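Please, structure for the following, as tokens.
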Amino acid sequence: MTIDPDAVLWSAPERERAGRPLLVLLHGYGSHEGDLFSLAPGLPLNPVIASLRAPIPTGPGHAWFPLSAETFADDLEANADAAAQSVLDWLDTTESTQVGILGFSQGGATALQVLRLAPERIAYTVMLSGFVVGADHPGDPALAAVRPPVFWGRGTADRVIPGPAIDWTSVWLPRHAETTTRVYEDLAHGISHDELTDISRFIAGHL
């Protein structure tokens, strides 16, 4: 799987990117690169923002990996790894020395999978309404040793992410990262104004 470089939305032209930190946005299942890019005005100005399009055409948009209902469950982690590797391969084409990732839903799961593959490459991660894929992963010991900062935001009214996935993420994430968790009352599968404010503060604190 590969990221289409022509589909990447940038917050700054190429001539203005040198020497600035990079914030990579990973949209949710069936969505597109323009979705999270709309958050840009509420995020810190320092980083250059790059919003990626997931590699797999799905419904009206794209996906990072097939859902478990569409493939064998044993392949789920391998598919998530392939999605994460596509993000890392794209990062190899950039010159940024400090990289943060913000992912929503399946994009958040992919962001955590990137950490499992290369924890030393990501300065901080924001996972919104997301989850961790599977249980043990070969990269987990290295990730636990690095313990990068991760912001995890979710709503109490989210009916999209299954309860068991939330429960396991609640156990797994603090074991492998310095976790900031925020739970927003009555928020469904989305991003609230209060959450965006918390996200912006978190990112600014790790630049």
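The mean pLDDT is 94. The beta strands are 9-10, 22-26, 48-52, 56-58, 61-63, 99-104, 124-128, 149-155, 178-184.
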